[in-house]
Design goal:
The structure holds two protein chains of two kinds. By secondary structure, chain A is α+β, with helices and mostly antiparallel strands. Chain A folds into two domains: about 5-230, PPM-type phosphatase domain (Phosphatase 2c, domain 1, 4-Layer Sandwich), CATH 3.60.40.10; about 235-390, no CATH class. Chain A is about 30% helix and about 25% strand. Chain A has helices spanning about 45-65, 70-80, 160-165, 180-195, 200-215, 250-255, 265-275, 310-320, 330-340, 370-380, and strands spanning about 5-15, 25-30, 35-45, 95-100, 105-110, 115-120, 125, 130-135, 145-150, 155-160, 220-230, 235-240, 260-265, 280-285, 295-300, 305, 345-350, 385-390. In chain A, strand 8 (about 130-135) and strand 9 (about 145-150) form a beta hairpin. In chain A, helix 6 (about 250-255) packs across helix 7 (about 265-275) and helix 8 crosses helix 9 (about 330-340). In chain B, strands 2-1-3-4 form a four-stranded mixed sheet, covered by helices on one side. By secondary structure, chain B is of the alpha+beta class. Chain B contains two helices and four strands, in the order βαβββα. Helix content of chain B is about 30%, strand content about 20%. Chain B has one domain: Glutaredoxin, CATH 3.40.30.10. Classes of the chains: A alpha+beta, B alpha+beta.
Chain lengths: ~400, ~80
Protein backbone atom coordinates (compact mmCIF):
# COMPACT_ATOMS: atom_id res chain seq x y z
CA UNK A 1 0.00 0.00 0.00
CA UNK A 2 1.14 3.57 -0.64
CA UNK A 3 2.66 5.30 2.34
CA UNK A 4 0.01 7.10 4.32
CA UNK A 5 -0.07 9.51 7.17
CA UNK A 6 -2.92 10.73 9.32
CA UNK A 7 -3.02 14.44 10.01
CA UNK A 8 -5.55 15.02 12.79
CA UNK A 9 -6.23 18.46 14.25
CA UNK A 10 -8.99 20.40 15.92
CA UNK A 11 -9.65 24.08 16.36
CA UNK A 12 -11.96 25.38 19.06
CA UNK A 13 -13.39 28.70 20.16
CA UNK A 14 -15.25 28.93 23.46
CA UNK A 15 -18.62 30.60 23.75
CA UNK A 16 -18.20 34.29 24.51
CA UNK A 17 -17.63 34.87 28.21
CA UNK A 18 -16.67 31.25 28.94
CA UNK A 19 -13.19 30.27 29.90
CA UNK A 20 -13.46 26.65 28.88
CA UNK A 21 -14.78 24.88 25.81
CA UNK A 22 -18.13 23.18 26.14
CA UNK A 23 -17.10 20.92 23.25
CA UNK A 24 -14.42 18.34 23.69
CA UNK A 25 -12.14 16.81 21.11
CA UNK A 26 -9.86 13.84 21.68
CA UNK A 27 -7.86 11.71 19.30
CA UNK A 28 -5.43 8.87 19.55
CA UNK A 29 -3.22 7.14 17.04
CA UNK A 30 -1.47 3.84 17.61
CA UNK A 31 2.28 3.95 16.89
CA UNK A 32 2.56 3.87 13.12
CA UNK A 33 -1.02 5.07 12.81
CA UNK A 34 -2.54 1.67 12.00
CA UNK A 35 -5.42 2.38 14.33
CA UNK A 36 -6.76 5.85 14.96
CA UNK A 37 -9.76 7.29 16.75
CA UNK A 38 -11.04 10.86 16.92
CA UNK A 39 -14.03 12.02 18.93
CA UNK A 40 -15.85 15.34 18.99
CA UNK A 41 -18.47 15.76 21.67
CA UNK A 42 -20.70 18.73 22.40
CA UNK A 43 -21.97 19.03 25.97
CA UNK A 44 -25.37 20.47 26.76
CA UNK A 45 -25.14 24.17 27.53
CA UNK A 46 -21.78 25.86 27.84
CA UNK A 47 -18.95 26.46 30.27
CA UNK A 48 -17.79 24.05 32.92
CA UNK A 49 -20.96 21.94 32.95
CA UNK A 50 -20.85 21.38 29.21
CA UNK A 51 -17.13 20.75 29.38
CA UNK A 52 -17.56 18.03 32.01
CA UNK A 53 -20.32 16.37 30.00
CA UNK A 54 -18.50 16.46 26.69
CA UNK A 55 -15.22 15.37 28.28
CA UNK A 56 -16.97 12.46 29.95
CA UNK A 57 -18.46 11.40 26.62
CA UNK A 58 -15.32 11.82 24.55
CA UNK A 59 -13.07 10.07 27.07
CA UNK A 60 -15.48 7.13 27.23
CA UNK A 61 -15.69 6.95 23.45
CA UNK A 62 -11.95 7.24 22.92
CA UNK A 63 -11.05 4.62 25.53
CA UNK A 64 -13.69 2.24 24.34
CA UNK A 65 -12.83 2.40 20.64
CA UNK A 66 -9.11 2.28 21.41
CA UNK A 67 -9.78 -0.95 23.31
CA UNK A 68 -11.25 -2.46 20.12
CA UNK A 69 -14.93 -1.99 20.92
CA UNK A 70 -16.67 -0.95 17.69
CA UNK A 71 -17.82 2.70 17.44
CA UNK A 72 -21.43 1.51 17.14
CA UNK A 73 -21.23 -0.58 20.26
CA UNK A 74 -19.41 2.26 22.01
CA UNK A 75 -22.27 4.61 21.11
CA UNK A 76 -24.73 2.19 22.67
CA UNK A 77 -22.61 2.02 25.82
CA UNK A 78 -22.61 5.81 26.02
CA UNK A 79 -26.38 5.96 25.50
CA UNK A 80 -26.85 3.51 28.32
CA UNK A 81 -24.64 5.35 30.76
CA UNK A 82 -25.24 9.02 29.94
CA UNK A 83 -28.00 10.79 31.80
CA UNK A 84 -30.85 12.53 30.02
CA UNK A 85 -31.86 16.10 30.81
CA UNK A 86 -35.01 15.74 32.94
CA UNK A 87 -36.63 18.90 31.58
CA UNK A 88 -35.75 18.90 27.93
CA UNK A 89 -35.57 15.14 27.53
CA UNK A 90 -32.44 15.37 25.50
CA UNK A 91 -29.10 13.74 25.90
CA UNK A 92 -26.54 15.56 27.95
CA UNK A 93 -24.04 15.37 25.13
CA UNK A 94 -23.91 14.76 21.40
CA UNK A 95 -20.94 13.13 19.72
CA UNK A 96 -19.21 12.01 16.54
CA UNK A 97 -16.70 9.18 16.56
CA UNK A 98 -14.43 8.33 13.66
CA UNK A 99 -12.33 5.20 13.62
CA UNK A 100 -9.68 4.41 11.03
CA UNK A 101 -8.25 0.95 10.70
CA UNK A 102 -5.10 0.38 8.71
CA UNK A 103 -5.42 3.99 7.46
CA UNK A 104 -8.15 2.74 5.16
CA UNK A 105 -11.32 1.35 6.72
CA UNK A 106 -13.30 4.25 8.07
CA UNK A 107 -16.26 3.97 10.36
CA UNK A 108 -18.03 7.10 11.47
CA UNK A 109 -20.74 7.09 14.11
CA UNK A 110 -22.68 10.27 14.75
CA UNK A 111 -25.27 11.24 17.26
CA UNK A 112 -27.04 14.59 17.00
CA UNK A 113 -23.96 16.53 15.84
CA UNK A 114 -24.06 18.25 12.43
CA UNK A 115 -23.38 15.62 9.80
CA UNK A 116 -19.65 15.16 9.31
CA UNK A 117 -18.36 16.20 5.89
CA UNK A 118 -16.27 13.77 3.91
CA UNK A 119 -14.16 15.27 1.16
CA UNK A 120 -12.24 13.44 -1.50
CA UNK A 121 -9.88 16.09 -2.80
CA UNK A 122 -11.97 19.24 -3.05
CA UNK A 123 -15.33 17.58 -3.67
CA UNK A 124 -17.78 16.12 -1.24
CA UNK A 125 -17.61 12.35 -1.14
CA UNK A 126 -20.97 10.68 -0.76
CA UNK A 127 -20.33 7.19 -2.00
CA UNK A 128 -20.49 5.75 1.49
CA UNK A 129 -22.54 3.03 3.16
CA UNK A 130 -24.87 4.94 5.41
CA UNK A 131 -27.16 3.49 8.01
CA UNK A 132 -29.49 5.36 10.30
CA UNK A 133 -30.93 3.71 13.35
CA UNK A 134 -32.99 5.12 16.20
CA UNK A 135 -30.91 5.84 19.25
CA UNK A 136 -32.14 6.04 22.81
CA UNK A 137 -35.44 4.28 22.60
CA UNK A 138 -35.97 5.31 26.22
CA UNK A 139 -36.46 8.95 25.34
CA UNK A 140 -37.89 8.20 21.95
CA UNK A 141 -35.76 10.63 20.05
CA UNK A 142 -32.55 10.99 18.18
CA UNK A 143 -30.95 8.87 15.52
CA UNK A 144 -27.53 7.43 15.27
CA UNK A 145 -25.89 7.47 11.86
CA UNK A 146 -23.18 5.06 10.87
CA UNK A 147 -21.06 5.71 7.79
CA UNK A 148 -18.48 3.32 6.39
CA UNK A 149 -16.10 3.71 3.48
CA UNK A 150 -12.62 2.89 2.27
CA UNK A 151 -10.41 5.94 2.52
CA UNK A 152 -7.95 7.05 -0.13
CA UNK A 153 -5.01 9.40 0.10
CA UNK A 154 -6.43 12.93 -0.09
CA UNK A 155 -9.61 12.17 1.88
CA UNK A 156 -10.70 14.38 4.74
CA UNK A 157 -13.27 13.71 7.43
CA UNK A 158 -14.45 16.97 8.95
CA UNK A 159 -16.46 16.94 12.16
CA UNK A 160 -18.27 20.06 13.36
CA UNK A 161 -20.11 21.16 16.43
CA UNK A 162 -23.41 22.99 15.96
CA UNK A 163 -21.64 26.20 16.96
CA UNK A 164 -20.22 26.15 13.42
CA UNK A 165 -23.40 25.46 11.45
CA UNK A 166 -25.45 27.81 13.62
CA UNK A 167 -22.90 30.62 13.64
CA UNK A 168 -24.53 33.95 12.95
CA UNK A 169 -28.01 32.58 13.71
CA UNK A 170 -30.55 35.39 13.83
CA UNK A 171 -28.31 37.97 12.23
CA UNK A 172 -29.39 39.75 9.05
CA UNK A 173 -26.80 38.02 6.91
CA UNK A 174 -27.42 34.56 8.36
CA UNK A 175 -30.97 34.37 9.72
CA UNK A 176 -30.76 30.56 9.79
CA UNK A 177 -27.12 30.44 10.78
CA UNK A 178 -24.15 29.57 8.59
CA UNK A 179 -25.83 26.21 7.70
CA UNK A 180 -24.14 22.95 6.85
CA UNK A 181 -24.56 23.59 3.14
CA UNK A 182 -22.73 26.91 3.30
CA UNK A 183 -19.99 25.43 5.52
CA UNK A 184 -19.56 22.69 2.93
CA UNK A 185 -19.20 25.26 0.16
CA UNK A 186 -16.73 27.25 2.25
CA UNK A 187 -14.57 24.17 2.85
CA UNK A 188 -14.79 23.12 -0.82
CA UNK A 189 -13.54 26.59 -1.75
CA UNK A 190 -10.65 26.33 0.72
CA UNK A 191 -9.67 22.93 -0.65
CA UNK A 192 -9.81 24.15 -4.24
CA UNK A 193 -7.54 27.08 -3.40
CA UNK A 194 -5.11 25.03 -1.34
CA UNK A 195 -5.47 21.28 -1.94
CA UNK A 196 -2.65 20.44 0.51
CA UNK A 197 -3.88 22.60 3.38
CA UNK A 198 -2.99 21.05 6.72
CA UNK A 199 -5.69 19.86 9.09
CA UNK A 200 -4.73 22.50 11.64
CA UNK A 201 -5.01 25.33 9.12
CA UNK A 202 -8.29 24.14 7.66
CA UNK A 203 -9.88 23.64 11.08
CA UNK A 204 -8.73 27.11 12.15
CA UNK A 205 -10.11 28.69 8.98
CA UNK A 206 -13.52 27.12 9.61
CA UNK A 207 -13.75 28.19 13.27
CA UNK A 208 -12.52 31.71 12.50
CA UNK A 209 -15.10 32.07 9.75
CA UNK A 210 -17.76 30.86 12.20
CA UNK A 211 -16.62 33.43 14.75
CA UNK A 212 -16.80 36.10 12.06
CA UNK A 213 -20.42 35.17 11.30
CA UNK A 214 -21.11 35.46 15.03
CA UNK A 215 -19.75 39.00 14.73
CA UNK A 216 -16.72 38.05 16.86
CA UNK A 217 -18.84 37.16 19.88
CA UNK A 218 -19.28 33.39 19.79
CA UNK A 219 -22.88 32.49 20.65
CA UNK A 220 -21.95 28.86 21.23
CA UNK A 221 -18.79 26.77 21.40
CA UNK A 222 -17.35 26.53 17.91
CA UNK A 223 -15.33 23.40 17.10
CA UNK A 224 -14.05 21.84 13.92
CA UNK A 225 -11.84 18.79 13.63
CA UNK A 226 -10.16 17.53 10.50
CA UNK A 227 -8.80 14.03 9.90
CA UNK A 228 -6.75 14.07 6.73
CA UNK A 229 -5.21 11.03 5.07
CA UNK A 230 -2.18 12.02 3.06
CA UNK A 231 1.34 11.14 2.10
CA UNK A 232 3.73 11.90 4.94
CA UNK A 233 5.82 15.06 4.80
CA UNK A 234 9.44 14.31 5.55
CA UNK A 235 11.92 16.72 7.05
CA UNK A 236 15.52 16.45 8.24
CA UNK A 237 17.21 18.59 10.84
CA UNK A 238 20.96 18.20 11.19
CA UNK A 239 23.11 19.63 13.91
CA UNK A 240 26.71 19.09 14.93
CA UNK A 241 29.62 17.65 12.99
CA UNK A 242 30.04 13.85 12.87
CA UNK A 243 32.26 12.43 15.60
CA UNK A 244 34.84 11.18 13.08
CA UNK A 245 35.83 13.83 10.53
CA UNK A 246 36.23 11.07 7.92
CA UNK A 247 32.45 10.66 8.06
CA UNK A 248 31.89 14.21 6.82
CA UNK A 249 31.50 13.07 3.24
CA UNK A 250 28.98 10.38 4.11
CA UNK A 251 27.13 12.85 6.33
CA UNK A 252 26.94 15.45 3.56
CA UNK A 253 25.76 12.83 1.08
CA UNK A 254 23.07 11.60 3.44
CA UNK A 255 21.71 15.11 3.92
CA UNK A 256 21.90 15.93 0.22
CA UNK A 257 20.01 12.81 -0.79
CA UNK A 258 17.24 13.41 1.71
CA UNK A 259 13.91 13.94 -0.01
CA UNK A 260 12.30 16.87 1.81
CA UNK A 261 13.15 20.15 3.51
CA UNK A 262 16.59 20.29 5.16
CA UNK A 263 17.33 22.37 8.25
CA UNK A 264 20.95 22.88 9.28
CA UNK A 265 21.67 24.14 12.80
CA UNK A 266 25.23 25.06 13.63
CA UNK A 267 27.98 27.11 12.01
CA UNK A 268 30.52 24.30 11.78
CA UNK A 269 27.91 21.86 10.50
CA UNK A 270 26.87 24.32 7.80
CA UNK A 271 30.50 24.87 6.85
CA UNK A 272 31.10 21.15 6.46
CA UNK A 273 28.08 20.89 4.17
CA UNK A 274 29.11 23.99 2.25
CA UNK A 275 32.55 22.48 1.70
CA UNK A 276 31.27 19.04 0.77
CA UNK A 277 28.49 20.30 -1.51
CA UNK A 278 30.80 22.96 -2.95
CA UNK A 279 28.24 25.73 -2.51
CA UNK A 280 28.76 29.13 -0.88
CA UNK A 281 27.43 29.83 2.62
CA UNK A 282 26.40 33.37 3.45
CA UNK A 283 25.29 34.90 6.74
CA UNK A 284 22.25 37.14 6.34
CA UNK A 285 23.10 40.33 8.20
CA UNK A 286 20.33 42.51 6.87
CA UNK A 287 17.53 41.42 9.16
CA UNK A 288 18.28 41.91 12.77
CA UNK A 289 17.17 39.51 15.41
CA UNK A 290 18.14 40.74 18.82
CA UNK A 291 17.93 37.46 20.70
CA UNK A 292 19.49 34.87 18.41
CA UNK A 293 22.42 34.76 15.99
CA UNK A 294 21.40 35.41 12.38
CA UNK A 295 20.42 32.88 9.74
CA UNK A 296 22.58 31.95 6.79
CA UNK A 297 21.73 31.03 3.23
CA UNK A 298 23.07 28.02 1.39
CA UNK A 299 21.82 26.42 -1.79
CA UNK A 300 20.31 23.02 -1.09
CA UNK A 301 19.33 23.80 2.50
CA UNK A 302 15.91 25.12 3.45
CA UNK A 303 17.07 26.87 6.58
CA UNK A 304 20.54 27.42 8.06
CA UNK A 305 20.85 28.72 11.61
CA UNK A 306 23.26 28.85 14.51
CA UNK A 307 23.30 25.69 16.64
CA UNK A 308 22.83 25.32 20.32
CA UNK A 309 21.28 28.69 21.27
CA UNK A 310 18.71 28.44 18.49
CA UNK A 311 17.91 24.82 19.29
CA UNK A 312 17.54 25.61 22.99
CA UNK A 313 15.01 28.27 21.98
CA UNK A 314 13.23 25.77 19.68
CA UNK A 315 12.94 23.36 22.58
CA UNK A 316 11.59 26.15 24.79
CA UNK A 317 8.95 27.15 22.21
CA UNK A 318 7.87 23.55 21.65
CA UNK A 319 7.44 23.03 25.39
CA UNK A 320 5.44 26.22 25.97
CA UNK A 321 2.23 25.97 24.04
CA UNK A 322 1.34 29.65 24.39
CA UNK A 323 3.83 31.07 21.98
CA UNK A 324 3.58 28.26 19.50
CA UNK A 325 1.90 29.99 16.62
CA UNK A 326 3.56 33.37 16.79
CA UNK A 327 4.47 34.36 13.28
CA UNK A 328 7.82 35.83 14.16
CA UNK A 329 10.76 35.90 11.89
CA UNK A 330 13.37 34.75 14.38
CA UNK A 331 15.24 31.63 13.26
CA UNK A 332 13.89 29.46 16.09
CA UNK A 333 10.27 30.29 15.23
CA UNK A 334 11.01 29.44 11.61
CA UNK A 335 12.38 26.05 12.65
CA UNK A 336 9.33 25.39 14.84
CA UNK A 337 6.96 26.25 11.99
CA UNK A 338 8.82 23.83 9.71
CA UNK A 339 8.88 21.07 12.31
CA UNK A 340 5.17 21.37 13.00
CA UNK A 341 4.41 21.26 9.32
CA UNK A 342 6.20 17.92 8.89
CA UNK A 343 4.99 14.43 9.80
CA UNK A 344 8.14 12.34 9.80
CA UNK A 345 11.13 14.10 11.19
CA UNK A 346 14.69 12.85 11.07
CA UNK A 347 16.99 14.45 13.61
CA UNK A 348 20.58 13.75 12.67
CA UNK A 349 22.88 14.74 15.48
CA UNK A 350 26.64 14.91 15.11
CA UNK A 351 28.31 14.04 18.38
CA UNK A 352 31.57 15.86 18.04
CA UNK A 353 32.10 17.99 21.13
CA UNK A 354 32.71 21.66 20.46
CA UNK A 355 35.75 22.36 22.63
CA UNK A 356 35.07 26.08 22.49
CA UNK A 357 31.82 25.53 24.38
CA UNK A 358 33.60 23.92 27.29
CA UNK A 359 35.04 27.24 28.41
CA UNK A 360 33.77 27.86 31.97
CA UNK A 361 33.43 31.56 31.10
CA UNK A 362 30.59 30.80 28.70
CA UNK A 363 26.98 30.89 29.94
CA UNK A 364 25.46 27.69 31.31
CA UNK A 365 22.75 27.77 28.65
CA UNK A 366 25.19 26.10 26.30
CA UNK A 367 23.65 22.79 27.17
CA UNK A 368 24.93 19.57 25.71
CA UNK A 369 23.60 19.26 22.18
CA UNK A 370 22.42 15.72 22.72
CA UNK A 371 20.26 16.69 25.69
CA UNK A 372 18.59 19.51 23.81
CA UNK A 373 17.92 17.26 20.84
CA UNK A 374 16.50 14.54 23.08
CA UNK A 375 14.15 17.10 24.60
CA UNK A 376 13.05 18.33 21.16
CA UNK A 377 12.49 14.77 19.95
CA UNK A 378 10.43 13.91 23.03
CA UNK A 379 8.30 17.03 22.73
CA UNK A 380 7.67 16.50 19.01
CA UNK A 381 6.65 12.91 19.67
CA UNK A 382 4.57 13.33 22.80
CA UNK A 383 2.92 16.71 22.38
CA UNK A 384 2.84 17.09 18.63
CA UNK A 385 2.35 13.44 17.60
CA UNK A 386 5.17 13.45 15.05
CA UNK A 387 7.06 10.37 13.92
CA UNK A 388 10.58 11.19 15.04
CA UNK A 389 13.80 9.38 14.32
CA UNK A 390 16.78 10.54 16.34
CA UNK A 391 20.12 9.38 14.96
CA UNK A 392 23.60 10.10 16.25
CA UNK A 393 26.58 10.23 14.00
CA UNK B 1 37.46 48.86 0.56
CA UNK B 2 38.06 47.38 3.99
CA UNK B 3 36.66 43.91 4.58
CA UNK B 4 35.17 43.32 8.02
CA UNK B 5 34.17 39.73 8.70
CA UNK B 6 32.17 39.19 11.88
CA UNK B 7 31.84 35.78 13.45
CA UNK B 8 28.25 34.91 14.35
CA UNK B 9 29.12 31.50 15.81
CA UNK B 10 27.77 30.48 19.19
CA UNK B 11 30.79 31.28 21.33
CA UNK B 12 31.35 34.69 19.74
CA UNK B 13 27.67 35.51 19.92
CA UNK B 14 27.27 34.79 23.62
CA UNK B 15 30.49 36.60 24.46
CA UNK B 16 29.08 39.83 23.04
CA UNK B 17 29.39 39.29 19.30
CA UNK B 18 25.67 39.90 18.88
CA UNK B 19 26.26 43.62 19.27
CA UNK B 20 28.97 43.56 16.59
CA UNK B 21 26.46 42.37 14.01
CA UNK B 22 24.81 45.79 14.24
CA UNK B 23 27.92 47.24 12.61
CA UNK B 24 26.51 45.99 9.31
CA UNK B 25 23.90 48.71 9.57
CA UNK B 26 25.37 51.32 11.85
CA UNK B 27 28.87 52.42 10.93
CA UNK B 28 30.09 55.88 11.90
CA UNK B 29 29.79 58.45 9.14
CA UNK B 30 33.56 58.61 8.49
CA UNK B 31 33.68 54.88 7.71
CA UNK B 32 30.39 54.51 5.86
CA UNK B 33 30.82 53.33 2.32
CA UNK B 34 34.39 52.23 2.92
CA UNK B 35 33.74 48.97 4.73
CA UNK B 36 32.34 45.75 3.34
CA UNK B 37 30.71 43.92 6.25
CA UNK B 38 30.07 40.19 6.00
CA UNK B 39 29.15 37.57 8.55
CA UNK B 40 30.68 34.17 9.03
CA UNK B 41 28.80 31.20 10.52
CA UNK B 42 32.02 30.48 12.43
CA UNK B 43 35.55 31.75 11.86
CA UNK B 44 36.72 28.57 13.62
CA UNK B 45 39.03 30.57 15.86
CA UNK B 46 37.36 29.70 19.14
CA UNK B 47 38.52 26.11 19.14
CA UNK B 48 42.06 26.69 17.96
CA UNK B 49 44.03 28.05 20.89
CA UNK B 50 45.34 31.48 20.10
CA UNK B 51 47.17 32.11 23.35
CA UNK B 52 44.94 34.12 25.60
CA UNK B 53 42.91 35.58 22.74
CA UNK B 54 39.22 35.17 23.29
CA UNK B 55 35.87 35.43 21.54
CA UNK B 56 34.26 37.44 20.04
CA UNK B 57 36.44 37.39 16.94
CA UNK B 58 36.35 39.49 13.81
CA UNK B 59 38.69 39.66 10.85
CA UNK B 60 39.64 42.98 9.31
CA UNK B 61 41.23 42.49 5.91
CA UNK B 62 42.08 38.98 7.05
CA UNK B 63 43.74 40.08 10.27
CA UNK B 64 42.26 38.56 13.43
CA UNK B 65 40.93 40.75 16.23
CA UNK B 66 39.91 39.11 19.47
CA UNK B 67 37.74 40.22 22.41
CA UNK B 68 36.12 42.53 19.93
CA UNK B 69 33.71 45.26 20.98
CA UNK B 70 31.92 47.80 18.81
CA UNK B 71 34.42 50.47 19.92
CA UNK B 72 37.54 48.35 19.39
CA UNK B 73 36.34 47.25 15.95
CA UNK B 74 35.60 50.83 14.87
CA UNK B 75 39.07 51.85 16.08
CA UNK B 76 40.69 48.97 14.20
CA UNK B 77 38.70 49.87 11.06
CA UNK B 78 39.99 53.45 11.26
CA UNK B 79 43.54 52.16 11.65
CA UNK B 80 43.07 49.91 8.64
CA UNK B 81 41.74 52.84 6.62
CA UNK B 82 44.66 55.06 7.61
CA UNK B 83 47.14 52.32 6.72
CA UNK B 84 45.78 52.15 3.15
Amino acid sequence: MDSRFLDIACSQIAKHGQRVYGDSFLSRKSPGGQHAVAVLSDGLGSGIKANVLSTLTSVMALKSVTEAVSPEHTAQLIFRSLPVCSERKINYATFSIVELKGMEKVQLVEYENPQALIFRGSSLFTNTRLETIPARKDIGRGVMTTTCFDAQVGDRIIMLSDGVTQAGLGTKSFPLGWTLKAVRQFIAGMLTDDPDISSRELAEKVTREGLKHDVYTAKDDISCSVTYIRHPRHLILVTGPPFHPEQDELFAMQVKNFDGPKIVCGGTTAMILSRQWAVPLKVVLSRRCSTLPPESKMEGATLVTEGILTLARVSEILCSKDSLWKQESDPAQKIVARLLDADRITLLVGTKINEAHQDPNLPQELDIRRNVMKRIARELKDSHLKDVELTYM
Amino acid sequence: MIHLEICSGTACYVMGGGALLLLAEELPADLAGQVLVTGSPCLELCRNPLGDRKAPFVKINGRIHSSATVESVIEALREARDED
